[in-house]
């Protein structure tokens, strides 16, 4: 069998899809005889009868139907390959690596990304989740192009766009504590009770502690969803982002114990990237898009 010609495959696909040689010729901007000859040549090379020409309209034989399903996959893959080559030639990234940190208001961040990538179908979003110092570690180790996480202190290697303020509230389930005045609870009084904390995903953990009471028994979880479940079931207490527990605070399934001794905390969620590394066209477009979101924020 000689090598199949791409032109012949495309002509066959057009005839099979359009139902006639004439219609296929119009779609391909070819003449009727050239399309007819291309399909005949393909059948001869394959040693198969692909089309039944006995009726008013041509139709696929059983062999033609099976071959067409595979041929369409091959043609589609070739189109993707050509698009990929054009993307490489233009310098446009094929993959953008983004890490979302544990403090992020996920619905809002995912909404931003969804709207941006809806118009960037040639670039695949590779999205991962990291906690505590994990996002910054991934960025500094060149394993991420952009992170959404807490706005760290100024670093000459980093630049950021502040996006959202996230309030963290210390909460317990009803009946978890034996105290009457929970607003005046001290850290010392909370030491006997299990505190739930987020597990640091960094390979080189940061010495920073967020809301952790020294000497208290603690349990660790991978994210705030799991942390919320433990607290709701009365297995621990801890700080949770207010956006995640608004309904539970309203209906009394969770109780805030924020006060002078155990305050809440406000974190700024920012988009952060390396200043000292080059960024491709899509990464630059995303950065500009996020700057626009910052300006438009109420």
UniProtKB/TrEMBL annotation:
One Pfam family here: LysR_substrate
UniProt keywords, alphabetically: DNA-binding, Transcription, Transcription regulation
Highest taxon of the lineage: Bacteria
Domain HTH lysR-type: start-end pairs: 4-61
Family membership: Belongs to the LysR transcriptional regulatory family.
Name listed for the protein in its UniProt record: LysR family transcriptional regulator
Lineage: Bacteria, Pseudomonadati, Pseudomonadota, Alphaproteobacteria, Hyphomicrobiales
